[in-house]
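Hey L., structure's done. Input below.
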Amino acid sequence: MTLAFVVNALTPSRSARTVLLRFAASMLTLELAAHTLILQMAATAVLVTLGALRVWPGRIGIAVSALSWAALLYTVIEARGARDVIRGALEGFARDIEGPRVPWPHVFSPVPLGRKGIRRIRNVVYARVAGRRLRLDVYLPEAPGEGRPAVMQIHGGAWIVGDKRTQGIPLCIHLAACGWVAFNVNYRLSPGATFPDHLIDLKRALAWIRAHAAEYGVDPSFVAVTGGSAGGHLAALMALTQNDPRYQPGFEGADTSVQAAVPFYGVYDFTNRSGTFHPAFVRRLLQAHVMKAFFDEQPERFAEASPIDRVRPDAPPFFVIHGDRDTLAPLSDARRFVQALSSVSRSPVLFAEIRGAQHAFDMLTSPRSVPVIEGVERFLDEVRRRQLSTAVDMPQPATASIASLERDPHAAAVQHD
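Output:
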């Protein structure tokens, strides 16, 4: 069974009928490879002690187990390469210094662990929409402070499932331990919600974060956005539709600019112009549940929902992260998005292809995800440092709210609650 799981993990399939099941098995196998290897070796030792080698089925079983051990060891070694990939992506952008590290015991915990010195405030209501209360969780340092940078985390789940309680937690914990304030946000889901309802809700959350900045010791002039999968898609759109009144009904005057974006394994093209998605993805998911429209009748709506069609010169700095074994969100679309954005943006656009990573690999702390999480903190810290440096050099604070690195970090007074 272990060998079958490893083979599935190392030979990703995008067959429409089995893709979700095979993805889940693949992600867990890859990110828990060390745990699986240790448990299987322990189980084998017990079986050998009980006499497994004295019969031919036992000897065959041991041989098969040895093959799975070799494959699991390969994935463990492969995962360690993520640190080199992140270092290469940040080369020439971030200073060549090591940032804060995730404590090593956390790397091997199958579930995210809390960190000393941070606290979480759960289920804060940020909006009441369509008969629903929309909530977020706040991760922040316990020590009093003010003027802290903030990040908004957006969960994935194909726009129809998902929750703040299960995604983005390792990153939120690490950023809070590094002095950030992280807001893990829920939003309305399809089929109840129709795009752009999801995006509008998240802009409401961003406006709420700025309005309540003083309560959490946040500097409202620096809010970054991140998310994975559908959350990566929405994070990219948040950065590419800053202050667009079409997505801010009733709060058109609110500042919804973001100062950096870090989409993980996002979806960047709802039109499927390259044919990288199975046709059922557009027909059964996007058309029927998310957009509630036919692509052949309203192609402009699908293009408006596609980050690749919204690239712009004044986009904030981007750090796009994608795994090369992703079976749900095509890597080739991420490459095309990065190329399109890089060709027009005046801000840095970084890209990291994480070797051996499946979709949603960062939901667990692992030898692969931890260097990525640490690299995201280094990226955001560098963007923040450049913003502060620019603000000091400028004689007057910038007035354009959508400029990513030209805002006065002290434009609004904040205080710790």
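The radius of gyration is 22 Å. Residues 396-417 have pLDDT under 50 and may be disordered.

-- N.
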